[in-house]
Amino acid sequence: MKSGIDRERLKKSFEELEKYGLTDRGGINRPALSDMDKGARDTFCKWMKEAGLKVRIDDVGNYYGRRDGLDNNFLPVVMGSHLDTVYYGGRFDGITGVQAALEVVRSLNDNGITTKRPVEICVFTNEEGTRFEPSMLGSGVLAGEFDIDSVYEIEDMDGIKFGEELERIGYKGDKKNRLTQADTYLELHVEQGPVLEKENMEIGVLKGIRGMVHLEVTITGVKDHAGPSPMEYRRDAMMGAANMIAEIEKVAYEVGDGTTTTVGKVKTIPASSNVIPKEVRFSVDIRNEEDSLIDLAVKKIKELIIKISKERGLAYNIEDFWRVDAIHFPQKMVNVVEGSAKERKYKYKMMVSGAGHDASYISMFVPTAMIFVPSIGGLSHCEEEFSEFSDIEKGVNVLYDSVLKCANR
Ligand SMILES: [Zn+2]
Fold it and tell me: How far is CA 57 from the centre of its chain?
């Protein structure tokens, strides 16, 4: 099957969109709902219109382009991802999936193909969650995980509200434009890990996405002068937290089977070199492909926090901040992607995503599959993030073939 994917055109579209947020070191700084995000949105919507798509925006700022099918009463086949980045992020995370979707549409146009079902592109708002926490707000609203009015109230570090920013950049659309049903959802994404490159594979066929739990922990002790307070009389929140964090790493090994635990954020109050901290707040991120193992790790982590707090006379508060269950994509969807990779004679690997994606939420109401392309050096969420266009092209071919199969069913 000839797809007519045009690598040069794809590359040029990447370069065009990179104007919005390109950093000195070759990354992209395009936090959600910033001016840079607006620039990328405006350009991408213009391209969708030029490709003959009907563009619409929903109330959380997700934007869509719909290509008519032979019978528009059929549910659409949807491709999607995101164009926002983490602060000083890379040129490929999310962007690759959105560009791939557009390239699929452009190739369908070139080949004069009208599919039986409509084909739709969806670009999700605030996937990264670095400006407005938590992640995947756009797809999460569609899945009914977040209430839109509370999403509008979320503030960034400067106290600017999500709803105000959405309105300011002109992307507060209509609730009736939301994606509520679809035949299938397909998302191409860069791997963001080293496995495909290390194993010399061209395509990752995803079986699912690891579940994750995010805890927010606050440890409270007694603030005191660093000089006159003997060690034995202290109730030092930092020493308690440090102890806990070291133990949290051990839990990952104890539970095993690919469990990961990460403490990525620590805040000290007051943060002063000669004051014993009164309060330490830290995040804990726990992931596995089986929910039961996540639950076990969470239980062990909570127990150790309680134990160490008691030993040191500290108070603790553990907030279950966020949870996404592990996802197992439907076998028939996995088969579509695997079949496409096989027919193209690509070297592919069956795998499970370690990171969350918009597909996590969309899979709650639409049969979903994902395609990975290699990330060089496994680097992601940094300016050095890189994927080869020869690899991306293969991924787009698999996406193209999979969309055709689903859209002509
Ligand atoms: Zn992403």
Answer: 20
pLDDT in tens, the chain (409 residues): 556 799 999 999 999 999 999 999 999 999 999 999 999 999 999 999 999 999 999 999 999 999 999 999 999 999 999 999 999 999 999 999 999 999 999 999 999 999 999 999 999 999 999 999 999 999 999 999 999 999 999 999 999 999 999 999 999 999 999 999 999 999 999 999 999 999 999 999 999 999 999 999 999 999 999 999 999 999 999 999 999 999 999 999 999 999 999 999 999 999 999 999 999 999 999 999 999 999 999 999 999 999 999 999 999 999 999 898 999 999 999 999 999 999 999 999 999 998 889 999 999 999 999 999 999 999 999 999 999 999 999 999 999 999 999 999 9
Q: Rounded CA gap, 141 and 202, in Å?
A: 33
For residue 270, what are the contacts with CB-CB under 8 A and spacing of at least 6? 223, 277, 278
Q: CA separation (Å) from 11 to 103, 369, 371?
A: 10, 24, 19
Domain span holding position 277: 211-324
Distance (Å) from CA 226 to ligand 1 centroid: 44
Provide the token pair at 107.
Answer: 């190739």
Distance 94 CA to ligand 1 centre (A): 4
Q: How many domains does the chain have?
A: 2
- Asked if 124 contacts 113 with a C-beta cutoff of 8 angstroms, the reply is no
Residue 67 C-alpha to ligand 1 middle, in angstroms?
24
Give me the sign of the Cα torsion angle 176, 180, 186, 190. positive
pTM: 0.85
Q: Tokens 């860069």 map to which residue?
A: 190
How far is the centre of ligand 1, averaged over its atoms, from the C-alpha of 93 (Å)?
A: 5
For residue 128, how far is its CA from the centre of ligand 1 (angstroms)? 7
- Which residues are registered as beta bridge partners of 233? none
Question: Exposure string (b/e) for 342-359, b if CB count within 10 Å is 16 or more?
Answer: eebebebbebbbbbbbbb
Q: Is residue 147 part of a domain?
A: yes
Is position 1 within any domain? no
For position 152, which CATH number holds? 3.40.630.10
